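Sequence, please.
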């Protein structure tokens, strides 16, 4: 079996596991579920085609080789369309997302999937600040705002935010520059007193999922797993036998 993908919070929260025949199993990640997979070799995860069938690849690059690495062209857009023909003629939202304690990111998405997009990223708070008629205008606004706010947040920063609270004063100061249309407070059901230890593991009891971060309890320690770091691994059923980094609290 191979772990070939994942669904973040906002899209069902699941690991996608191929059995080698082309079939893909969606393994839900519900709080309280027990995961028991041991990671083996890692190689290209191949692709899942339009029919939902997994097309395997044995090239050594992970999570994807050069033939299966795809970049969504719209993600690089700053207002000048990079496609042969512009096709984003529908309402788009420009938003500001907060990641505790004080990282603030600008982003754009189609208006109808705004809340889903926020949860996919694991945002703690967000504000909808513009609605525009197409993606080109949205990207232009995003590029302008990105001169003073970030437009990407690294996984390490998101792990650091897991047991932190948003700096209210800093958040309100950022939003003071905008006419806010709507606000969102995203709850992921996590009640973490301390920051989890970052690890790459697929065994333990599911605490929850925040964006693409899977939170697991294992052996008295809480771990934060970037699910992208799992993609490409061959997996076998059964808990990992390797030593994991423990938090100081697990020795109390």
């Amino acid at each position: 079996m191979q772990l070939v993908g994942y669904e973040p919070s906002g899209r069902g929260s699941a690991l996608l596991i191929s059995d080698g025949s082309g079939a893909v199993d969606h393994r839900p990640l519900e709080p309280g579920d027990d995961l028991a997979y041991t990671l083996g070799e890692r190689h290209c995860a191949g692709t899942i085609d339009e029919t939902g069938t997994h097309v395997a690849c044995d090239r050594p690059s992970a999570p994807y080789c050069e033939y299966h690495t795809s970049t969504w062209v719209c993600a690089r857009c700053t207002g000048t369309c990079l496609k042969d023909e512009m096709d984003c003629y529908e309402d788009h939202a420009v938003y500001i997302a907060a990641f505790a304690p004080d990282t603030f990111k600008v982003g754009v998405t189609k208006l109808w999937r705004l809340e889903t997009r926020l949860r996919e990223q694991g945002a703690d708070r967000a504000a909808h600040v513009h609605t525009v008629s197409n993606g080109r205008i949205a990207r232009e606004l995003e590029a302008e705002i990105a001169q003073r706010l970030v437009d990407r947040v690294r996984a390490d920063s998101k792990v650091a935010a897991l047991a932190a609270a948003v700096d209210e004063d800093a958040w309100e100061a950022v939003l003071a520059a905008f006419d806010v249309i709507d606000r969102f407070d995203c709850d992921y059901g996590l009640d973490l007193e301390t920051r989890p230890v970052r690890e790459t593991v697929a065994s333990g009891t599911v605490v929850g999922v925040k964006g693409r971060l899977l939170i697991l309890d294992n052996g008295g320690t809480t771990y934060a797993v970037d699910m992208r770091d799992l993609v490409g691994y061959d997996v076998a059923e059964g808990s990992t036998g390797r030593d994991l980094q423990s938090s100081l609290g697990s020795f109390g």
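DSSP finds four helices and 15 strands in the chain.
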